[in-house]
Amino acid sequence: MKVKNKYVNRSRISEKKFREIIKYFSLDLNAVQIKELTGLSRQTINKYLTAIRLRIVELSILQSTPLVGQIEVDESYFGARRVRGKRGRGALGETIVFGLLKRGDK
After folding, report:
1. Is 77 in the same domain as 55?
2. pTM of the predicted structure, to 2 decimals
3. 95-100: long-range contacts at Cβ-Cβ below 8 A with a sequence spacing of 24 or more?
4. Structural domain of residue 91, as residue ranges?
5. Per-residue pLDDT tens digits for 38-86
6. Number of compact structural domains in the chain
7. Do 22 and 47 lie in a common domain?
8. What is each CA distance from 44 to 77, 80, 91, in whole angstroms?
9. What's the number of CA atoms in the CB half-sphere (13 Å) around residue 60?
10. DSSP-derived secondary structure letter, 88
């Protein structure tokens, strides 16, 4: 029995199509654009893109080191100083920046 795709078990698409999906994923195209370029259905593209993203998360978790010791966390909002007529602070139209700093390290 010949394996159709060595990257994905029980795959219904060829290795060539799978590599094509990865290429377009790395070019940051969305599922509809990839569908038009490959000729596969959007559901199939979404299935493989989800699997790729999950694998990236798994590998990131395996390679990450836990933060130990004193950690400083801060957030800032960047945007217009004040919007007239609005009550409260509100973050509409502002960019939120979140940062972590481990003491003793950079």
Report:
1. no
2. 0.62
3. 98/73, 98/74, 99/73, 99/74, 99/75, 100/67, 100/71, 100/72, 100/73
4. 71-102
5. 999 999 999 999 999 999 999 998 888 777 778 888 988 887 766 666 6
6. 2
7. yes
8. 39, 43, 37
9. 6
10. S
